[in-house]
User: What shape does this take?
Amino acid sequence: MILAQVQIHNRAGDESCVADNGLCPDWIWDNFDRYVDPFWDHVYLTIVAVAIGFAISFALALVAYRRRWLIGPIVNVTAILYTVPSVAAFFLLLPVTGRGNTTALIALVSYTLLILFRNTLAGLDNVPEEAKDAGRGMGLTSRQLLWRVELPLAVPEIVAGLRVAATTTVGLATLAFFAGAGGLGEQIFADINFKSNVVTAGGLCVLLAVALDIGLLLVQRAVTPWSRA
Amino acid sequence: MSDFGDAIELIFQSRESNEGVRVGGSQFLDLAVDHMWLSLVATAIACATAIPLGLWLGHIGRGGFLAINASNVGRAVPSLALIAFFVAYLGVGFANVTLALVLLAVPPILTNTYVGVRQVDRDTVEAARGMGMTGPQIVRRIEFPLSVPLIFGGIRTSAVNVVATATLAPLAGVLSLGDPIINVSTYGDDGRLGAAILVAFLAVATELSLAAAQRAATPKGLRRRRTRMKQVRYATALIAVLLAALALGACGDDDDDDGGGGGGDTAGQIERNDANADTKITVGSKNFTEQKILGEIYAQGLEAAGFDISKELNLGDEKVALKAAKEGEIDAYPEYTGTELVSLFGVPSDKIPTDPQAAYEDAKAGFAKEGLVAYPPTPYTNSNEVGMTQETADKLGITKISELADVDQDLTLYGTPECRQRMDCLLGLEKVYGLDFKKFVPVAIDLRHEVLTSGKADLSIVFTTDPQIQREGFVLLDDDKQMFPPYNVTFNVRQEVADEAGPEIEKVVEQLQAGMTDDVMSELNARVDLDKKTPEEVAKEYLEESGLI
Assistant: This one.
């Protein structure tokens, strides 16, 4: 039989920031550890989705750069993927791919494609003719020209696309818990009334977005030394 | 498997849900109209604020930093967080959801308007000034027309975003096409999928029609050709994507589950039995505080007995949980006898026994048919209650549910979405008590007290063991016609797993439940809802304080 008994506290008229669902710095400080795992889930979803999305769009952009007729169809299909609301996308995928990271990643990747494809292609298209001529004059083959002249000069626009894709994906990944993939959205939803909870989880999303944004900007500066005066 | 076929059929043809509410067909149309109305209002307000502001900032050439960065920061703020934030600070309702959506819609329009004005050729502006135009004239006749294409681009981005995000509105008590997506029990899987398809269609349609409007509004001199062609390609691509989706839907998926062998000994206190390690049990729970705590208690208790436990807590409502158990996604979950009889097995409320033990026997028989074993129930019962604030109770001067009959036409009742069609909720109040409320508003289960304290609801369906009742001094109306059945908790385990685990599992469940009185459960709920501990911590405290581990 039960030996001990659960202690009952009387909370009638109890005034406390936490019980009032308020914004309580002390509580956030003491309970920050419960946001750590969801945060890393969120980082994982964002980075993997943007990386896969970039790999696909980059390949598509390189192909379409030489075969211009492909641009129209690729833009149209990715534009439609981009338009389908994310919540709907998760549920459209559930019957096909089931609950879990795969479903979440497919939806998140499909959102990055349009932005990344358009920016990569625009970057390549905006390379000055003079630079390409100079490259050809130095005897570069068209493949060498692509990797040594055109792509490096396209970096600023490619990174601009990555920055938009990364921040957007951070926001969309809050809905990934609908597909059973966890993340900070699950934390927000766990106690949607509690201001400390919503502000902490939402704030971490914004911080993550800003950190990725700045990180990508630093990468861009590092790989385009010539652009610094 | 024809998930997509069923879903599409439901869009065009309504059907009756379990308790006789019509879903699908014209009801989806109503939801779509609500959805688009909400989106339209939000986008219109955003345009009315962002365009003039953007024109002004662009005209005077200041505030570029604000206009550009507003858009970048805006993208990073997740729409879910935004809505959650508004619910937390302002409460539920149309105005708050609209405001959240407006905030979401303003940045792209503002940025594009600003950029649109700034990119107008300065020579053109100088020429206009030379012709004697005043500042407002320049804005109206030169800068605005020339920036229309970009402004429309911003409106397109915002409108599509708003249509997508309006899907989350039911979380804050506003009906939209998100309702079937979020409240699966009412609509079923086909309803959810159907609504998802409709939302996707609405977003694409919004995009296409605004693209057409953008072309029409663009000054002739700025128009590019080959737009017609593009539209045709768009439509072709759309059809291709949908066909691909349908084709994919035709392919099935199957789930698998596995288990080991071996039984176990019995023990006095919860004692580890290593033989149990061969039995894998996935413990599930529904999506509110007490259920998560119960799920954790059973999971941690069984784990202490040596079973191989994994958890899938926070599944959804009772139908989602039962479906998960029948499909083997989970092996066990706690449920209330009243809910089992009323909602899962469709027993009419006048046939439900008022004696807890008799209710358990009926529920056990019902579960046996579904292939689940229901172990004996907890001592405590957690009933649905009709709650109101002390203030409302004083004003109305009533103490019983039947007394609502005189005032019901002036009262708004809030409850969970599935309440609408449950005999132990709105449907029962209408049929058994003959009540006809001014309005019923479905809200997320977590908001059941907030709607009372904020004054939005006159009445709200709450649970007996909610600690907020004591804290906020809510008044519970007496169920004088005994409509609400007993709600003791049974732990329900899939037959195969129960056989595999042997008699030991029943013994552990009994030990775990012995200390669960009304007061204890209310205390445990308070530790999560008011003290903000996690269900995991609180379950552990229960086991420790009860001397079980």
